[in-house]
Amino acid sequence: xxxxxxxxxxxxxxxxxxxxxxxxxxxxxxxxxxxxxxxxxxxxxxxxxxxxxxxxxxxxxxxxxxxxxxxxxxxxxxxxxxxxxxxxxxxxxxxxxxxxxxxxxxxxxxxxxxxxxxxxxxxxxxxxxxxxxxxxxxxxxxxxxxxxxxxxxxxxxxxxxxxxxxxxxxxxxxxxxxxxxxxxxxxxxxxxxxxxxxxxxxxxxxxxxxxxxxxxxxxxxxxxxxxxxxxxxxxxxxxxxxxxxxxxxxxxxxxxxxxxxxxxxxxxxxxxxxxxxxxxxxxxxxxxxxxxxxxxxxxxxxxxxx
Length: 306
Hints:
By secondary structure, the protein is an alpha/beta fold. The protein is built from 10 helices and 11 strands.
């Protein structure tokens, strides 16, 4: 019975597939213990994803997020005997106004947790396609190294402002770069910024997600890569599993490879958000529990996992 802290549905995300209920039913069929519902937050029109431009206004996108939370609560009640559903969201961190959007969401709703992610640097998407990645790289000065430095600086701003309980795809920046399967070798400045960010996450008890979507997208290792995981382990850092699924065909994808990666890196304990655990952050309705990886590997899920 594995866990995922990061998912999207086509009902509430334009670049995903399937309804929220279909996603949940598939997670149940695949034997998930805990599955988090984390749709994207509303954004100003200048930060719409391409598939949203012709279908939404600022008002309709905000309304869609409200509808997601209503439907998520309905699904949690309907399937409470079959799966533990967590209700949260995935943040953005694009421009100064993003912070106020998130604070307004916190004022309006109480969540179990949220996934603190960034997908933009210099307000430009860095994981959408190669062309937009190159625009971001040009804005940073023309090299991967400079763009990586700017990405981790912007991530640090997000971490300081929001202190997310789970940090999403920590090193997403490498996906479309010329260094996608490198270990940041020779990038001393980048390493210093990453270590600073990791130390800050560890200082407030944040958890890094081990995100299998990197494997699905052709990377040799998940997010974050092994050197980052080793550094965070040395700091006493904690990890949680995610598939970052965007539809039923991606739920639990590459989890066996993710498990092998955890064992190779030396992760001995896996954490998960738990509504039965006491919250350590007053903003949220849930805390964290854990399972030893030696126990995780004996769960029946792995007999049928992809």
